[in-house]
Design a protein that fits this description.
This protein has helices spanning 6-35, 44-72, 81-108, 128-155, 157-168; strands at residues 114-115, 118-119. With 174 residues, the chain is mostly helical. Strand 1 (114-115) and strand 2 (118-119) form a beta hairpin. Helix 2 runs antiparallel to helix 3 and helix 3 (81-108) runs antiparallel to helix 4.
């Protein structure tokens, strides 16, 4: 049996974190684009299917991420741990609720959900009135999630600036 160190788990978390960050950026960008397509646009189906597939993918990644976070829990807490915990809890809630609301929206609108062509189960029945509400809820949850991601980026600005300086620093041969 292999023993995974805390450092290896943190590295795995870092990879999943940035993979999900990129995936959510793609999902949000594609979502903004596809809802502004003209009616009967022939490319709409592709964009909606891709958007849904990415939503399913992030749900699988989130499952892996939660597993890794639980394995990495420890006694170390930052000095403002309550604010950090509240922000991260909100981010995790949105990471679950936004894709699930999209799944609910697709099902109640009478559309299926697939992971890059692999059909996912239909969990909710078609209901036109409910799908109209689900559309509004999904959109507002996505925008609110994006706002919380912005707060997260602001909270991490020192780390991001230090990383940027480290990556762009000139290396002087010694």
């Amino acid at each position: 049996m292999l023993h995974t160190t805390k450092r290896q788990i943190r590295n795995q978390l870092w990879i999943v974190h940035w993979t999900m960050a990129i995936a959510f950026t793609v999902i949000f960008t594609v979502g903004l684009y596809m809802v502004n397509l003209p009616d009967k646009d022939p490319s709409a189906g592709f964009f909606f299917d891709f958007h849904k597939s990415m939503g399913v993918l992030v749900m699988f990644l989130l499952t892996a991420r939660i597993f890794l976070v639980l394995r990495n829990l420890g006694p170390a807490r930052p000095k403002n741990w309550l604010v950090t915990a509240a922000l991260h809890t909100a981010l995790y809630v949105f990471m679950v609720v936004v894709p699930l609301s999209g799944y609910f929206l697709s099902n109640t609108s009478g559309y299926g959900v697939a992971l890059f062509g692999l059909p996912m189960p239909t969990l909710f029945g078609k209901d036109r009135a409910l799908s109209e509400t689900a559309t509004e809820v999904h959109v507002w949850l996505a925008y609110t999630f994006a706002a919380f991601v912005g707060v997260h980026l602001l909270a991490q600005r020192k780390f991001m600036m230090a990383t940027w300086r480290r990556l762009t620093a000139r290396r002087i041969p010694g």
